[in-house]
Amino acid sequence: MNQRAVRKSLALSLAAIAASALALGAVPAGAAAAPPPSAVAAPPSSDACRLPAAVGGLGSGFPVDEQALPAVGTLKAALLLVDFEDHPASPASAAEAEANLAPGVEYLERVSGGRLEVTTTTSDGWVRMPEPSTSYPFERGLSYEDHVRYIGDAIAAADDTFDFSDVDVVWVTATKEAPNITYSPTTNFLDVTADGNHLTHAVTFGYDQWRWGGLVLAHESGHTLGLPDLYLFEAPPEDPGNYHAAVGGWDLMGLISGAGPEYLAWHRWQLGWLDDAQVVCARGDRTTSARLAPVALSADAGPGQAAMVVHPLSATRAVVVENRQPVGYDEAIEARGALVYTVDTSVPSGEGPVRVVDATPGSPDGLDDAPFAAGSSWTEPTTGAELTFRAGPGNTLKVTVQP
Ligand SMILES: [Zn+2]
Known about the structure:
Blueprint (H helix, E strand, L loop, with lengths): L2 H6 L5 H4 L55 E11 L9 H19 L4 E7 L4 E2 L15 H15 L10 E6 L11 E2 L4 E3 L2 E3 L1 E5 L3 H4 L2 H10 L40 H7 L7 E3 L6 E5 L15 E5 L4 E8 L12 E8 L9 E3 L20 E3 L6 E6 L5 E6 L1
Parallel strand pairs: 1-2, 1-3, 1-4, 4-8, 9-11
Antiparallel strand pairs: 5-8, 6-7, 10-17, 11-12, 12-13, 13-14, 15-16, 16-17
Helix pairs in contact: 3-6
GO molecular function, one term: metallopeptidase activity
Protein name: M6 family metalloprotease domain-containing protein
InterPro entries: Peptidase_M6-like_domain
């Protein structure tokens, strides 16, 4: 959850939080300029599909929010382990706390295809906070100011023995002994200076980390890097209580414990984790086909395999198709095939900037069986474009967009 979301939706329940390639037939660059023999033309530049951000803060447009940290390069994290006079931690439990978050770091490095390297410097054992745990009102509606005070106290308590001069993001994890540090908010507006370094980005890891496991670190880091929440801050009136009506468990920013917690291909493109050449832009004036590698393998996709097809609908909206197969972090998905979703760059975090199209509306499994199976098709209701999905070699998927 992002700090702006905290400010906006303080009453949010834990349940809510639960929250080189190319189109076939393309003419390679530098090839003879003869026109392709069929209606299948070279894809236009991905620029036409790079939808500009049309909302402030965290969202799904380009570029990501200016307050986000770079997602390519090295992210230098300070991990502060904190305990409290009313909930002291045993020295031995430090290793357990570190181990719980480690899978989140591994996730970021794997899903980025190595484009993001995370270096973590951990405090030398537990750092005692100056106030009892109950002075931080996580259970009573944590404000932005409360959160900054909590993070600031942790930094001040650690500062004597910790060098913050070269830190990009501060992670503060509370001892498991303090269940009243309930959840795990993020801020990109910290505004604390230590060792001459103006610290702006921080994540708190509270008791919910023991339910989510380490992927909570990757979700919160998504906010640090500019990604929005894809679960809904308010459930739709027609589907009360369903905070996951937009993307179900198909993206880590939607549901940490979902069966398919890979980042969506669109997110990877936003973060610079996909090359433009891996994005096939299907404009409305020609037929476009592409062969898609599974999203989980997009960093290592073979030649001729793209990561997604984007069919723009307007200046701020597009339909995206990606290939989801039970590999990588998608190992446990119930249904495989073409995951189709709309992206709207005018919709803010938590209000559904991404919405998955359900191939099986009304099924008891909700969005768990949302992908379109190979051999099926779908007509986009506003442009009338027909999208067809066929199995390709291995676990690839051939997608054709026919205007
Ligand atoms: Zn979030």
